[in-house]
Amino acid sequence: MLRSSAAASLVPYAELLDSLNGLTWPSQVRVRGGDPGSHRSNRLGRSPEFTEYRAYRPGDDLRRLDWKLLGRTDRLFLRIADDHAALRTSIVVDASASMRFPVEGYGKWEHACAIALGLTSVAISDGDAVGISVATAAGERAIPPRRRRDVLHDIAELFQSVKTGGEAALTGVVERLATSPRLVVITDFLGESERALGALRVAAAAGAEVFAVHVVAEAELDPPQRAFMASDPERPEFRRAMSEASRATYLEQFATWRERVAGELHAMNGNYRLTSTSEPVRDVVRRVVLGAAGAAA
Length: 297
Fold this sequence. Notes:
Number of helices: 10
Radius of gyration: 23 Å
Number of strands: 10
Oligomer: single chain
């Protein structure tokens, strides 16, 4: 029986989790053989799922010879079958001050938490172990990889307990997880978070499947068409007057910066998805797991 507090922590996500039933998150490459799972492994074995024959080469395992075919054709062929393996997934969520925008109502932090929980649910349904790391100004808070669905309750409770603020050490967390077979970072890439791109590049070079979910607030994409004073959430001393005249410059610079971030991710063969707080989370999760066909424009 679930703890009452744990069950309550998932109530806000119940509709989202129901909408993701049946969704899968296939690996983009063959994964290294390991725990049984749903992904094609790069280890050729003798599982019941036969895929093809291959001519025998000196040094091949004689136990994989098809002796019946040898008897019929007098030629040496191996039966090649695909083993399936699990893919350990690490999800990093940015809890810096800028993720608290807007302060009132549904903001980037809530959006990021819901996306992380949705991706965890899909990965666990595939039989994968999922670990969550939250990068905060006070350090990393983490839940180690688990394959049981009860990890969803622990993740939801962790998110509820986190206080966003300051500059989160996102880069250090990503560096620690650079050897994870699948690495997902959910952030707004503001402040220190942008420096995490270098750590993601290292992870991609090491063979990780890298996913970057770039979260922006709708108000950042379409700020009010009136004069107001804007401040940096992570450096409140930096304030800038926003007027109708400066709005066009801001929008141009913001778009150019997003394109640069996307370009860096694409250059490292990473998967970049831009999402605003107005997009339904189920749609974000589907775009992430369905691959390039669902990539943001």
